[in-house]
Automatic annotation (TrEMBL):
One of its GO terms (molecular function) is phosphoacetylglucosamine mutase activity. It catalyses: N-acetyl-alpha-D-glucosamine 1-phosphate = N-acetyl-D-glucosamine 6-phosphate. This is Phosphoacetylglucosamine mutase. InterPro entries: A-D-PHexomutase_a/b/a-I, A-D-PHexomutase_a/b/a-I/II/III, A-D-PHexomutase_C, A-D-PHexomutase_C_sf, AMG1_II, AMG1_III, PAGM. Residues 55-89, 126-177 form the Alpha-D-phosphohexomutase alpha/beta/alpha domain. It comes from Acacia crassicarpa. It holds the Pfam family AMG1_II. Its EC number is 5.4.2.3. Its cofactor is Mg(2+). Belongs to the phosphohexose mutase family. Residues 181-291, 307-457 form the Phosphoacetylglucosamine mutase AMG1 domain. Keywords: Isomerase, Magnesium, Metal-binding, Phosphoprotein.
Amino acid sequence: MNEEQKSLLISSSSHFLPPQGVRLSYGTAGFRADASLLSSTVYRMGILAALRSLKTQAVIGLMITASHNKISDNGVKIADPNGGMLSQHWEPFADALANAPSPQDLVQLINDFVKEGIPFNGVRPAEVILGRDTRPSGDALLKAAKEGIASIVGAIATDMGILTTPQLHWMVRARNMGMKASEEDYFEQLSSSFRCLMDLIPSEKSNRSGPNDKLVVDGANGVGGGNLEVLLKQLNGLSIEIRNYGEDGGVLNEGVGADFVQKEKVVPNGFDSKDVGIRCASLDGDADRLVYFSVTAESNGKIELVDGDKILSLFALFIREQLIILSEEEDAKNSRQAHLGVVQTAYANGASTNYLKQLGLEVNFTPTGVKYLHEKAAEFDIGIYFEANGHGTILFSEDFSGWLVAKTKELSSKSKGSELEKAALRLLAVNKLINQAVGDALSGLLLVEVILQHMGWSIHRWNELYHDLPSRQLKVKVADRTAVVTANAETVVVSPLGLQEAINAETAKHSQGRCFVRPSGTEDVVRVYAEASTQEAADSLANSVAKLVDQFLGCSS
Ligand SMILES: CC(=O)N[C@H]1[C@@H](OP(=O)(O)O)O[C@H](CO)[C@@H](O)[C@@H]1O
Ligand SMILES: [Mg+2]
């Protein structure tokens, strides 16, 4: 690093001193905290994003969002060249950068880090594209990120404005693949592939129109509602009403949104008994999560939740159906056995895992956090991953995508209009529709809608695929949550000693009992998850284990 670069960093970073007495850490999905604490962290992540761009010689993304958390929070995450989360190898550097106490320490840290092969005078300058959600603190934080980027000599920052998190990740991926990457291109790709899937619906199934068939979407008062509206203008065949836009007086994520609906299992604001039976969906504040629900008859605000596990099951069924058609090709020498895999976390409802296994699918488990699920799913020709909370997507390997393109070409000359060709075209359209950078509520919603039409299913028919086991999630405040160490995709506690045995003993008391605990990566709590054959049993198991956690780890003051 030359002197010019060092002095630029010293002078610029002196405007962004870190908050006193707070240690920030790169959690499950980036930094998250009260927005008033974050300008120095975001500034420093601007630096990191520029360095990452130099290192990879590719475009990097920087997103300002705190997703489903309260409006006064904010956060920052980095998108790697493939559009996925920042490589885990860089997380310790991100932590160190965020917490360097003075400009001098910061420069020292960067200087040591770049010695390990970051080409400062490379052919290509650093390039970072930025986006933010609708939080009021976003504008100032975005400026801080830009200052960070500008403190790396020659770096280019492009502000894409207010976006959903998945849009920014999509743009990064598209840019680095040499494809068109504007917001319009995003909408165009989603809408054209959606239309293509609609055109491929078997004719006997495409009769489900009528007033009862509208979808009502809860936009969490975030960025997703408005974007969905833009998208809808480019589509036909879908009747969607959007509520909780954020412009009708509601507060971001307050009593609304996918996280609220999934955890509380009650209707979001703006929904009531008038909506009984209607197919409803809920996005989170930055539109990377999606769940469906319907309001039940003797309601009290209760809902039937159709969560990420069921979206995963629907996607898996549809993909599997197309793969079966393709594998029945008579000319066996040209057929290819695609390796389809699904990936879940321990939070997946046990009934969903059983269902997927019964379909003959390979089910894999990873720790919580999209970065782990995504990495695992990328090992398959087609990998489908979802967290129960509604974050997930489908990944097609490069190799399989190439095969699919060649196959559709071959079939279009050899057997135009055949079932075989339609199956291949459907997979190709899913490959375009689904956001393969990260989970995306908008592209996920379009895929759910078209698959339901393809199957001729109502939300109730879909929900009947299997019955969720009753479950309960609790949070326990402890003195030091990092004292809980887990193994086997977070299903077993290895430390503190004795806790797992105690959990086992409680779990054994309940029919179909399953329970695990883990430290949250985004909140200062230990999470408890319990499942059992009745709601009372799940509640009682969760409560007993929460007490155990408290006993073993001691309550904070
Ligand atoms: C139980 C749960 O929902 N955990 C969430 C939550 O992580 P925790 O590490 O559990 O705080 O936030 C993550 C980021 O949004 C998300 O990936 C994850 O699924
Ligand atoms: Mg989110």
